[in-house]
Amino acid sequence: FLRKLPLYGFSSGFDSDNSSGDFSEANHKVTEMLDLDPHQSNRTEKHNGETEIQENGIKRHRTSLPAPMFSRSDFSVWSILKKCIGLELSKITMPIVFNEPLSFLQRITEYMEHIYLINKACSHADPLERMQAVAAFAVSAVASQWERTGKPFNPLLGETYELTREDLGFRFISEQVSHHPPISAFYSEGLSKDFIFHGSIYPKLKFWGKSIEAEPRGTITLELLKHNEAYTWTNPTCCVHNVIIGKLWLEQYGTVEIVNHSTGDKCVLNFKPCGLFGKELHRVEGYIQDKNKKKLCVIYGKWTECLWCTDPTTYETYKKNEKRGGEQKKLKPSEDVIKSENDEADDMPEVQDTVQFVPGSKLLWRINCRPPNSSQMYNFTSFAVSLNELEKGMEAILAPTDCRLRPDIRNMENGNMDVASKEKERLEEKQRAARKERAKDEVEWQTRWFHQGTNPYTGTSDWLYSGGYFDRNFSDCPDIY
């Protein structure tokens, strides 16, 4: 189950402190409808045969990791899990070999990979178009983790991660606010003061013997300040199959409701279960309705590929024609979803087709292509590759609790697996000792940058940003490394 982990799923439920050790277009005029990430159009050029300098002068981030990924072929997930049947999954210990060199806090930051969708939402005057962009953003956050081959490190209590991207126009801060249960809180804002994005993530994990399911917990909130709008939603359920034998494969299912608390509009997205012969694998279908429950548009696609929208009448007419055996237009599969020849013998549903294009549809989003060497870098996207980058002079301004300073993650990224494993054990032992000391002195853990409160839009319990992080007063940060 650890080979294809979702952003919000199994990552924060393991490695407790008990540890030791292009899609091609069909024959229709798609190019006129494409509305893709403007940041992908930034041209680059080679300088001195090595360094890529962007023509717009924006700082270039690294494009590869210091060391290639190691092989996991000699390790068995089941050998670990068979000892843990009946135990609480948040207490399962996983060896470092199953990790990727990122903390879960850094993986949460991957929500921001498709921030251009938030920018689109901010720029649209039409509330329907804003909701379409927000829906695409919610789906893109799930897609960014497809085919990742390792689990992120469980954050230590008090661990933080900050990311400022002037080129993308945002800054982001997160903190591990609870260890049992593991809860991660995050807050992001646009540098132009155009949006606020925040939430907390703490999935409930269930082990069913042959599969592991992550039921989402925690509210995600996006505020578009210019329009005085707030949207909230919760992620779909994720399930990983073939834990005991066969090829591990992942599906997302369940209903995601995105609510615009200002207009009363709602987007209902159905992440469909795999179904017989894998016909529904990866499919997303839904609609946007107004406060009077009138359907305004239909959204369809795959969370591993792309998302389209069209008007309800056109969609229903097409579907009726399809059932009568009418001509279907299909999009050719992208490289991201082509099935490997080695998968033929595996117990994994085959993808029978890709997205069936409804004429007149508008493309809302498509998945980013991974870099050519991604398979040697834990299947990281270009955005993910840059997350643990520690630039010159950065240590002097980072909080001492920042993920980039974790010695186990840093050593793993550099290929020093033995040192990384020992450091991981040392850090977890230090965390246990600190907890025992607090218990002895009857002292409660105090979070630094977030506090528990009530979401102002849903009325439910939430972790809210207390402010002040970017003032950079880190004198009272805990010593966790």
From TrEMBL:
Keywords: Coiled coil, Lipid transport, Lipid-binding, Transport. Residues 410-444 form a coiled coil. GO terms for molecular function: cholesterol binding. It holds the Pfam family Oxysterol_BP. The keyword Coiled coil applies. GO terms for cellular component: cytosol; perinuclear endoplasmic reticulum; plasma membrane. This is Oxysterol-binding protein. InterPro entries: OSBP_sf, Oxysterol-bd, Oxysterol-bd_CS. The keyword Coiled coil applies. Belongs to the OSBP family. GO terms for biological process: lipid transport. SUPFAM superfamilies: Oxysterol-binding protein-like.
